[in-house]
Design goal:
mainly alpha, 4 helices, 85% helix, 130 residues, homotrimer
Amino acid sequence: MNWVAGVVLLSLIEYLVFGALVGRARGKYAIAAPAVSGHPMFERYFRVHQNSLEQLIVFIPAVWLFGGYVSPLVAAILGAIFIVARIVYAVGYIGAPERRGSGSGLSFLMQIVLVVGALYGVIRSLIVAG
Amino acid sequence: MNWVAGVVLLSLIEYLVFGALVGRARGKYAIAAPAVSGHPMFERYFRVHQNSLEQLIVFIPAVWLFGGYVSPLVAAILGAIFIVARIVYAVGYIGAPERRGSGSGLSFLMQIVLVVGALYGVIRSLIVAG
Amino acid sequence: MNWVAGVVLLSLIEYLVFGALVGRARGKYAIAAPAVSGHPMFERYFRVHQNSLEQLIVFIPAVWLFGGYVSPLVAAILGAIFIVARIVYAVGYIGAPERRGSGSGLSFLMQIVLVVGALYGVIRSLIVAG
């Protein structure tokens, strides 16, 4: 599971970078806390960070269980694709929210594959054990 | 821990469905990204998804540690109740926010039971090992 | 990993307390769901809870992997510092958002140390295994 652990940690570093960009945008567009709106550009950075949070809650348990129940190598490869898709998403969204589609679709697909694949692995284990 | 893993994955699928409903509501009520407000019905779907995120961050580690330190079977049963309570919550909230109480209270109770139960199991292990 | 599990559960209890304070603030400042803004004091409580969520998604996997790959004892100590830093942050933020700096900086630093330390441990394991 070493490769899966590495991919999980890289996804966390990516997320911390998105968070740092929100902090920078807060200063640049003069949005004083606790406000989280007020300038469209700030809102784009904020939504990229929030959307990554919304996806990590699925990605981390799913990539871990996929690794444990199906294949650590395949889990790590799918996880690496997820991380790259998040960069594509972020670059697209910050450029223009209507262009967030491609990266968003790919990272969503990775989530589905990881969750459904892990569930298949769990059910197979339950049948074998039963 | 197979049953606990299965329950975790089902909670993720439920959450992905809530996320898909937000996407559909974005189109239906014409809320262009990055906005997350502008129509009360869209805000209900958005808050159901966000609230599920807020609860999964507790539920997933807690159900896993409860399974490992107390009982995998009891963890899976409490987890299944949590998942059903989230459906009750979502249906109630989308119908009328003031009716979100019952499902919300039950899923909150499951969180408390899982966290406190797991903490009891950890403390017991620390005493036995000490 | 008993101490790490205990620290994870304490961080979840802290987060549930922040969530309960949001619920209380909703009543006190008369912010009806699904609204999440409308009174600066409510927004402070809401942001403390949200910010904790944003940090737990990193903290929980990172403290766990740091414990597994580097040292469970050091992971538990860093985790305990993180939990205390969140209290400092919350008290500061609710008092005055511009005073959130110290607790915020310390908990962010703990995240970085846990993620980078765990990544170092994973890379070391990959080299040893390779």
